[in-house]
Amino acid sequence: MKLFIYDHCPFCVKARMIFGLKDLPVRLVTLLSDDEITPISMIGKKMAPILQKDDGSYLPESMDIVHYVDNLDGKPLLTGKTNPAIATWLQHTATYVNKLLLPRFANADFEEFATDNARRYFSDKKQAASGDFAVLLADSADLIAQLEEDLATLSPLIQSSEAVNGTLSEDDIHLFPLLRSLSIVAGVALPDNVEAYRNRMAQRVDIPLLFDMEQ
């Protein structure tokens, strides 16, 4: 199978995770950020991730891909119960975390920004929605302080470095991509168990963290 992705994209990380957890081969294809033709030709709109199945058909939407791949062999891994507190925590941090992430993504050496036009396409669209990147970067210290307070509240929710609730669940699929994204932000101190969880999950799903792009 092929999985069409952007490397920075948390939704793409969700789809990538299930292949790593199940030790299934997949060919990753990174789309250029400004490539509208390829995804539209596959599913009628510009988005990622998109899975090309073995039969050649296409499946978009990250969680649809996760559920499809997890159940291919009839032995799903994501069997654990979810914790509503994890969803609440993610909803809360989503109100501000992109102000930290988007300016740094735009400056980083991701394959989807391999051309100047692709990088400009991303930057222009995201700044129109989120604000001037230079201003957001200037406000980083306050946002990092807020994030560290919120990471402290996440810490007691993590039951194991192997799975946030002790058994793999959809909560892991939603939580790890954000924690991975945060590894691009220099100066963020994670509680020890949150860092242990992030490191172990990165290993389990075979998706590298972003410390080499840290800003």
TrEMBL record:
Gene3D superfamilies membership: 1.20.1050.10, Glutaredoxin
Record NCBIfam families: GRXB, PRK10387.1
Protein known as: Glutaredoxin 2
Domain GST N-terminal: 1-77
PROSITE patterns: GLUTAREDOXIN_1, GST_NTER
Domain of life: Bacteria
Classification via InterPro entries: GLR_AS, Glutaredoxin2_C, Glutathione-S-Trfase_C_sf, Glutathione_S-Trfase, Glutathione_S-Trfase_N, Grx2, Thioredoxin-like_sf
Coiled-coil residues: none
